[in-house]
Amino acid sequence: MTARRLRAAAASSHSSHSSRTSFQRTSSSAASLAACLALSLACGAVLAQTPASRPATQATRSFDIPPGPLDLALTRLARASGILLSFDPKLVEGRQSAGLVGAYTVEAGLRGLLGDAPLRAVPQADGSYVVERAPADEAAAAPLTQLPVVRIKARTDPLMTEKTDRYGVVASNSATRLALSPRETPQSVTVVTRARMDDFGLLNANDVLASTTGVSVDVVETDRTYFNARGFDISNFQVDGVGLPFTNGDQLGDIDTALFDRVEVLRGANGLLSSTGNPAATVNYVRKRPTSSFQGAVGLTLGSWNKKRVEGDVSGPLNDAGTLRGRAIVMAQRNESFMDNYALSKNLAAGLLEASLSPRTTLTLGLSRQANRPEGTAWGGLPLNYADGSATDYQRSTAAAPRWSHWDNTDTTAFVELAHALGGGWNAKAMASYRTLKADGKLFSISGALPDRTTGAGTESWLSTQVTDETQKLFDASASGPFELLGRRHDLVVGVNTARVHNEASYQRGAGNGTAIIAPDGWGNYPEPAWNGGTGSADFVNRRESIYALARLNLADPWKLLLGLNHTRMRSEGLGFRAVPRVYKETETVPYLGTVVDLDAHHSLYASTTTIVNPQTQVDANQALLGPIKGRNVELGAKGEWMNGELNGSFAVFRTTQNNLAEYAGFDADGGFSYYRRIDATAKGFELELSGRLSPDWDLSAGYTQLRIEDATGADARTFVPRRTARVSARYRVPALPALKLGATLRWQSDIHRVNGTQTAPDGSVIIARQSAYAVLGLMARYDFSDRLSAHLLLNNVTDRKYLASLYWDQSLLGAGRNGQLTLNWKL
Predict the structure, then answer these.
(1) Which residues of 508-543 are buried (b: 16+ CB within 10 A; e: fewer)?
(2) What pLDDT is attached to residue 41?
(3) Of all helices (H) and strands (E), which one includes residue 110?
(4) Residues 779, 743: contact at Cβ < 8 Å?
(5) Number of C-alpha atoms within 13 angstroms, CB side, residue 357?
(6) 327 in Cβ contact with 289 (< 8 Å)
(7) Contact 601, 9 (CB under 8 A)
(8) At what angle do helices 70-81 and 106-114 cross, to 10 degrees?
(9) Nearest residue to 275 via CA among 504, 512, 495
(10) Is 208 helix (H, G, I), strand (E, B) or coil?
(11) Could you write out the DSSP letters of every residue in 534-576?
(12) Contact 281/268 with Cβ under 8 angstroms?
């Protein structure tokens, strides 16, 4: 019998000829740690083992183990209690555990996790336990009331967070497709759970990522955003682990979070599963799924600037057997803004059906649609400097566009997913999705020269319609499971991925382009023109086909090695604006290498490296494509896991390089396009992060990032990216009043600056825009009047700090001032 042996503390040595394969967490020799950090594959590395005392199995201890697969629950109990636990994986395959909450002895806890399964945990003379099949008569005679009642939290997927009410997670699979704990993953991963989104009103992607360690959000326009991590733009955004880089490098419109259970952010290159994109980060939005028991909620939000929002979410079984489950999510929101003329109306509707076709097979169908209808859309921002080079200081309410300017966009996605348990611990999944992104706008932009400080003269109008229609077809199929090699159990993932994106775009200029405007009043009052100017169009198709594989090798009890490979073919054909060919063909094979060494029950060292390639859509001043970016990410660090795995911490040192990177260089007013220059850049730095539950009443997510970014000559590059950032989200349940939760958020960044690339001061000196270091503080209070009714108050930017939202371009908007909102939530 092949068995798994689990422990959280070091134990005495066992012979390599034991009848069971031994998996013991031990400290390791300096030689093996050095080999790990150097990513060596030397087979002769020696792993030392230190003896430990027999655990006190009769002592009562506190457990908080969530529902989920039985093998994962047993693993968590073994780690938490420091026992050595052995079991045959085939005995627990496919079995679920109701979890364990409360104070138990080890024996009682094991009985609770095993529940009514025909299994028993047998104590051994050395203090360890072996899970084996219970005799038929013993199983039949076992009383059903051996334990106090355990609260069961219905959850289809053990990775789902909506029922946990926690900031930490048990595991994620964004990096490898394997459900690994944060400590087992050899890269930096942050998971923004449903609880954190609800606590702090993170209603859209910008809010979520602005609160994430190491991520900066550049709101360049009212309805367009860039994101960066570790010094470079984030281009890879996925849904349920599948997706493509942004076609044009930015996010158009608002992505609402009502549809999602959590958002996983994998920092660094994701060469294994993405293969294309920037080595900055991959953002994975994970959808909510139908639940096995009925649940429902309705929420109403009222806030500053006439904000009104209502949302509903209902889920549960649709037949008596529970084999057919459904979920419906709806949302509608309307708000004005601190900026004159701007307002946003948006709505979302989604439906999901999940059918258990057999005990091993699940089919899921989903359809979602989000429509954003903004008014007063700013196509660009406000000037950062006057013509004399001094900084502008406009009021927050200054309009950057008239009311008629708008950029409507609609995102519709349909998907089908089939999951099947193959047996022997192997699982297969296939997913296909069809997504359309449509946008239609009539837009106003502030163009021309910088305004005169005294007269306001100098700026001009730039007017254009923008119509885009993008269709994405994605398919991904993968299989994962264990295999035996040299007496040890390892894990393997194999998969294929295909994608096709068809982008059609057109524009027509407005009459009166180049009309002089007096700043700032003329911007918001500019009349809508006749749309009879010059036209242009683009029509191109991007294709990508990939095959990938990853082996997680159990080289020794505390040492895991991850070896992966992704082979990708990328093609593009068609024409961009002004009939510029959008043609490229690239084939890349991208390796992935990672390793994790457990030092003891709570601490690990890790290292990883991967490369990535990203075909670019940006053009130079001659409208020639810049060619693909090639990047590499190397990361080394240490991770810790405490409080029964509820609290995770990490320290990472990273080096990220990008060659042939596009950097904004200016705007061609005659041709109506932005152009870029090529740079080579390297970012080096470190990150600290702590996330999870510090105590039964206190949840925390906190992180700090510090980096340098240099070009090929060693000079500072991308100076609009802050070199130091800190993010904190904390929530505290008041013990004397358990229905009350208090929380706070802090978002801080160091100073940034940007040299104006198109204009100089009258004396010929460079014009520099600067934003000093700043912090934005938020406060939260929530009171549960009953199990069903709660009220939730948020205050944002409590100190009313004034700051520029971005220096990504030579223009910028201002950040929102002090504001608040009140939400009432009713659970059905």
Answers:
(1) bbbeebebebebbebbbebeebeeebeebebebebb
(2) 31
(3) helix 106-114
(4) yes
(5) 10
(6) yes
(7) yes
(8) 170
(9) 495
(10) helix
(11) -EEEEEEEEEEEEEEEEEEEEEETTEEEEEEEEEEEEEEEEE-
(12) yes
89: three-class secondary structure by DSSP: helix
Average pLDDT along the chain: 86
Token digits of residue 504: 């059609």
Average pLDDT (105-115) is 87
Residues paired with 481 in a beta bridge: 492
Furthest-apart CA atoms within the chain: distance in Å: 96
Which two tokens mark 385?
């400097």
Q: Is the peptide bond before 520 cis (omega within 30 degrees of 0)?
A: yes
Q: How far apart are CA 208 and CA 197, in angstroms?
A: 7
For residue 163, give both structure tokens: 């029922």
What is d(CA 206, CA 257) in angstroms, rounded to the nearest whole number? 10
Do β-strands 740-749 and 774-784 pair in parallel, antiparallel, or remain unpaired? antiparallel
Report the C-alpha gap between 299 and 305 in whole angstroms: 19
CA distance 94 to 422: 11
φ and ψ at 739, to 5 degrees? -75, -10
Distance CA 466, CA 226 (A): 19
Q: Which residue has the tokens 């606590």?
A: 199
Element of type H or E holding 448: strand 426-448
Tokens of 73: 């629950």
Start-to-end CA span in the chain (Å): 49
How do residues 486-525 score in pLDDT, each as one tens digit? 989 999 999 999 999 999 999 999 999 999 999 999 999 9
Cα 520 to Cα 51, 378, 393, 402, 758: the distances in Å are 74, 14, 11, 12, 21
Distances (CA, A) of 325 to 286, 290, 292, 318, 363: 18, 6, 7, 5, 10
